[in-house]
Amino acid sequence: EIVLTQSPGTLSMSPGERATLSCRASQIFSSTYLVWYQQKPGQAPRLLIYDASSRAAGTPDRFSGSGSGTDFTLTISRLEPEDFAVYYCQQYGTLPRTFGQGTKVEIK
Amino acid sequence: EVQLVESGGGLVQPGGSLRLSCAASGFTFNIYSMSWVRQAPGKGLEWVSYISGSSGTKYYADSVKGRFTISRDNAKNSLYLQMNSLRDEDTAVYYCARDGRGSYRDWFDPWGQGTLVTVSS
Q: What is the pLDDT of residues B52-76, one digit of tens each?
């Protein structure tokens, strides 16, 4: 099973700042089969980024994904008030599909 | 608009059974694989089970293998999860999610709003 480790666990930021979230895999998996989801309290996760770097429909361009192999990054260029949430990475290269434990982006 | 609506959650005693349903609309249901993903209270996400569009391929997480059964009825645009021998650690919000049109190598989009399953005596 591929273990995804996200860091940091919590990111305390101010609106307008740049946020960088990391997702590291315990082993290399096929291609760039990694996605990022955003989850707000009481809501289901929402797809933000697929194939490591492609924005899903409706994802603002301040969100960008990068990486390959075992190291992946989600960058939010300028935090908006609606961006404060929990972010999960997930790999779909091998079974079982696994998620990181999440990074909470909170208002400083 | 693509919509997924789960139902069937509730309180059940350890060792009991529950059947979850997911009603799909707004897309051609039978060409998409579907999955169940769960989230324990205050915890992260865990993929539970996958079923292909034709029901010919099914996968399960080790934590539920032999206890849970995924199925679908394409005529009714519905997905199901039969959960038997429930344990305390199965307590979670269960989400129905649309998968891809091919193998399991795809992402979940969109997700339903979830249904809460509580296993407790």
A: 999 999 999 999 999 999 999 999 9
